UniProtKB/TrEMBL annotation:
Gene3D superfamilies: 2.30.130.110. It comes from the Bacteria. The keyword Lyase applies. It comes from Desulfoluna spongiiphila. One of its GO terms (biological process) is D-galacturonate catabolic process. This is Altronate hydrolase/altronate dehydratase small subunit.
Length: 114
């Protein structure tokens, strides 16, 4: 069974379908049904969130559905959570206080805020 789905070929993130823990094997399936080589989760990632399929340097676009949905606000390691703490939108500026509250609600530590 797949743990994460890749929506389009150029994507550098996948959506985690069931929560994963740090060090666990993440099975990757493409929307078309193909499979990619599994990867290791670098940290716990709650279901419904994005996992980095590769190291994403600060400033590089985050690609999902083949579209740039934002950019990395800091370096993002392969296999780690891609979310408001390390991504900035191309369309909307989310204040740091709201980012902190989102992470708090998720039970995650504040990390990587610029």
């Amino acid at each position: 069974m797949a743990n994460a789905m890749i929506m389009a070929d150029p994507d550098n993130v996948a959506t985690v379908l069931s929560s994963v823990t740090a060090g666990s094997r993440v099975e990757l399936i493409e929307k078309t049904g193909g499979r990619r080589a599994p990867m290791e989760a670098g940290e716990g990632i709650p279901a419904g969130n994005k996992i980095a399929l590769e190291a994403i340097p600060k400033g590089k676009d985050i690609i999902k559905y083949g579209v740039a949905v934002g950019y990395a606000s800091c370096d993002i390691a392969e296999g780690t959570l891609v979310h408001v703490h390390n991504v900035r939108s191309h369309r909307i500026d989310i204040p740091d206080g709201i980012i902190d509250e989102i992470l708090n609600q998720m039970g995650l530590k504040q990390r990587g805020n610029p």
